[in-house]
Amino acid sequence: MSVDSSSLGPSLRLSSRMAGVRSSAIRDLLTFTARPEVISLAGGLPAVELVPRGRIAQAARRALGDPHSVQYGETSGWAPLRETVASRESEAVGRRVAPAEVVVTHGSQQALSLLAQVLLDPGDTVVVEEPGYTGALQVFRAAQAAVVPVALDANGMDTAVLEQALREGLRPKVVHTVSNFHNPRGVVLSAQRREHLASLADRYGFWIIEDDPYGELWFDAPPPAPVATHSDRVLRLSSGSKTVAPALRIGWLHGDRRVCEAVELLKQGADLCGSSLTQRIATELLDDRTWLDSHLAAIRGAYSARSHALVGALESVFGERISHTPVFGGMFCWIEFADGCDATSLLARAIEHDVAYVPGGAFGVADAHSHAARLCFATYGGEVLVEGVNRLRQAYDAHIRTPWSVTGH
Amino acid sequence: MSVDSSSLGPSLRLSSRMAGVRSSAIRDLLTFTARPEVISLAGGLPAVELVPRGRIAQAARRALGDPHSVQYGETSGWAPLRETVASRESEAVGRRVAPAEVVVTHGSQQALSLLAQVLLDPGDTVVVEEPGYTGALQVFRAAQAAVVPVALDANGMDTAVLEQALREGLRPKVVHTVSNFHNPRGVVLSAQRREHLASLADRYGFWIIEDDPYGELWFDAPPPAPVATHSDRVLRLSSGSKTVAPALRIGWLHGDRRVCEAVELLKQGADLCGSSLTQRIATELLDDRTWLDSHLAAIRGAYSARSHALVGALESVFGERISHTPVFGGMFCWIEFADGCDATSLLARAIEHDVAYVPGGAFGVADAHSHAARLCFATYGGEVLVEGVNRLRQAYDAHIRTPWSVTGH
């Protein structure tokens, strides 16, 4: 979706920025799959039954005992929450992180959006992963950056390809990576490539945005230490949306103090401050380490079981017709159709069969990944996932029989 | 405050946008007045004891009974909240407003920020009030707009001055007005000028941003019908922050559907969506009209009494030394020192006497209002306000005796 503002007339026209801004394909899809009978593997929605509503209600009641919980708050986030985040980040990166190196944002998407404004002038170069996170592509395009894709493989962004491009003169201002359980590919950036990427940032002088909302959702073993362990050119984003609750809208940025100050300045104009209430709730939950550890263990167990259910069904129902990236954590499974079946045309048929996913093309900078798709296994239990795969097979068979009628839709 | 990023080196430099972005003077002041013994008339903070914490706790508990209250939500806002806002706006402007003409934002500041990005290209002209809302000045400067001030008087923005400038060739893309109980001046745009401003927008083709967070806070009589009553070129912003609670971070935009669509598109990249939880809480409170009416009556009564306490103290303690704009609602009283006392130098002395305010210069586009100040009467009860005025007089007397030593600080 883009906005048709041609009827507004020249003096009321929208800004030129709007010409490059389009709705994410995932968003538009979700509007088509809102029917309750559709099994939507399209959204990146955490399992709502695993969100600790009772614990949140308790924390809300406690927070509301304090009058300041309903007042405006500090732009950079409630001080105790910044301390909590700083302490978590200190453990993750193996050095002391100060609260002044943390900004709490309205989800990590806001951190990404403010960072793009803080760091990028129109025409600046940004390296993204191919395929990449659509919310990042959207933000970088809105900043009128030149977006350069670097391919992913089973070990994450191919940093040898990046290095070659740097040697040939590429000078990015920013390199964006979803280092853990990649959206949409599911892969993990290897330890060796993390070090390599950090050394390239130091050598060539660019910022790394390490976008890490899924790192806590590992199944059998935690991912390697963050890229931020290896360089102070890293701006690390994470979030409570996948571990505690999306509706608290708590994300954060950790990194260079001057960048944090600049993000805070822009956040003043962007929305004054976050919610004192939801920041207090998040703080209580993140500070209760005993509870949080068992809560995370429950999510990891459930998501692991769901990923096995999905992958098992894909293997038994589709056999050699599809391949998939192994799943070690996160929320997504990336599949590719061996016969080159076009996932966008198949989607129309799939929705007729009450199942949905995101076609790979939605994540591409270039016009690629047409025979791939992202399936989210987090939202539903195993039985529903199996039923979803069965419906997908029916849609696939119907599509194979009469592809042209579908293409002609 | 601006960010000193000179030490970052050329390849890591911040965007050129950041050169024009500075912290609002109010924000920086607040950091100096955080000592509990300071009576700060500087912040625009609602009375926290009037925020209905018990009612919010009830609504939170009820909302959390529904699993969807903790999930991601629609970018444009929870549908029932958009309906509630559309219904309130329909009553206010006297015609039917559709939910599709409403976007719920993270406070009305987010609506202002997204509107600036949707409407303005660098170099576009924006008319603001002089003095004006600092949060608007900040956003328009970040959008690299050319900001043109138009003076206010006791009846709000002087639309005759605006018309003259338009006749002489001024072609603004946007005119921003705080139509009710102006921040910082406290004045109300007269009914006649509302019509005049709307007719100018229609004749010359510009958008009006009618920024109205204080309209419900009238004392003896409601303000005239909104500017939006008179033209569909009006983008109307309001908020639950001053009536329900700042911490819910619920604001909204009502206006042209194409602009709403564009704001929604940018909001996807800005923060994905608002909080499903606080939007549900706000909906319950705004929908309970019986409760809301009595709650608003209580706020109006308390703020009216506080304004009388402040103004009475100013008159009895300062006499002819200051003049003030009559207060009919809102949260602010604007004073001017008859002897031309410089309010910025006085502030240093005032903080020594444990009282604070915002000097008029903070609100000026040009270097003006140096002998004026904004005092907020909403935050404290009458006795504290009187004590604050007494301290201010002591500071004033000390300043008058030895102004140069203070200037030399």
UniProtKB/TrEMBL annotation, chains A, B:
Cofactor(s) this protein requires: pyridoxal 5'-phosphate
Annotated GO MF terms: pyridoxal phosphate binding; transaminase activity
KW Transferase (keyword) present: yes
InterPro entries: Aminotransferase_I/II_large (IPR004839), Class-I_PLP-dep_aminotransf (IPR050859), PyrdxlP-dep_Trfase (IPR015424), PyrdxlP-dep_Trfase_major (IPR015421), PyrdxlP-dep_Trfase_small (IPR015422)
Ranges for domain Aminotransferase class I/classII large: 54-387
Key words, A-Z: Aminotransferase, Pyridoxal phosphate, Transferase
Gene Ontology BP term (one): alpha-amino acid metabolic process
Keyword Transferase: yes
Pfam families (alphabetical): Aminotran_1_2 (PF00155)
Quaternary structure (record): Homodimer.
Family indicated by similarity: Belongs to the class-I pyridoxal-phosphate-dependent aminotransferase family.
Protein name as annotated: PLP-dependent aminotransferase family protein
Source organism per UniProt: Rhodococcus xishaensis
